[in-house]
User: What shape does this take?
Amino acid sequence: MTIIMDEEIRTTESMYEFVRTRESRARTYADRFHRVFERGSGARLFDTEGREYLDCLAVAGTLALGHNHPYVAKAVGRFLESGAVQQALDLTTPAKHDFLKALYACLPTGFAEHARVQFCGPTGADAVEAALKLFKTATGRRTVFSFSGAYHGMTNGALALTGNLSAKQEVAGLMADVHFLPYPYSYRCPFGIGPAGAQTSLEYINRLLSDPESGISKPAALIVEAVQGEGGVIPAPLDWLRGLREITAAHDVPMIVDEVQTGFGRTGHMFAFEAAGIEPDAVLLSKAIGGGYPLSVVLYHEKYDRWQAGAHAGTFRGNQMAMVAGTAVMEVLFEQDLVEAAKDKGEFLRAALTDLALKHPEVGDLRGRGLMWGLEIVDPRSERDARLGSRRADGVRARAIQQRCLDLGLILETGGRHGAVVRLLPPLIISFSELARVVSILDRALTETAA
Assistant: This one.
């Protein structure tokens, strides 16, 4: 019996259809990208028919160094050939020691001095679940604050903290005692007052925590993204982050920053919260931390280290290959100064995309930091919001732009309200010439999908 099909019938179409008909309806990316991807190098992907694509998805921001970075590949290759332990639960290994040394060197000094680490399962959602358990244990409280537009994962607790309703409205029994706060989103300000909404948001949160009859008990924690990713690439104003840290500290509410997508240079800082000069109580990391292999961690202040042995575990929390690859990624980030380079490339994109937005009325709003950008697509014929000037989101057109970009050799994501935000998450090693090509393809796609 031959397990793999004969090469003569193993065509692109046969492979795609075989997987499509057997995979669940919950799949997402594969239905948008009707291709079979075979090879990757740097910021480029190649399908089975030899077509080349610039990859501005990078596994939802996971591949900080792109596909098959030689330094990472060699580090993993040497490790696999050495006979070293590949999975180790939470046992101590040389790979774990080296990984932690590199990780703590990446952290802000003040935070690193008092940080404890919990290795979690394969995904960022598991880090969220671990953090929930930790802070509920440490504080003895049950309530958790999150924000509209947030994305923290698809497991029970993480999904309960996520703003998007489509994935949760049919799921009964999600974690209780979650309350959503207004996130500063000037283009579609929840208060209808634009940029001034950030200060109003802080005043609302402060008054909510101060009011003995608010109806909401004091939370075990508040979780926030410094830049909302899946929510539509919405950077929080730095003053707002500073104000939020002051409020949570004053009310003794632990502040968790979810850096699963923004960590390790993505926004032009090693971690997005650093731009505001704040020190959170906990930081959640995954994606880039494993160098393309599954791994997640919770870093938190030692004063909250009150849970008992076995309070959180997971078979693959000791993924040694991910630790080796992650160490290699961190070494390259430092040696090639890729975090500062991401800032420079971000300014290049800011200028180029601003010109693009001025040219195309379908781009209602442009926002981002470093190598994390979003273009909110709107119907330019719709009426403007009387107070904000924003137009109706056009998710259908955003999807059409995504598909046309794919045909032209560019892979990108959509997200945000109504799926109307075209998102760019290229690897940090992408070149300026490749970025110029990205903008050129976007320009053409916007032109060719215009009404």
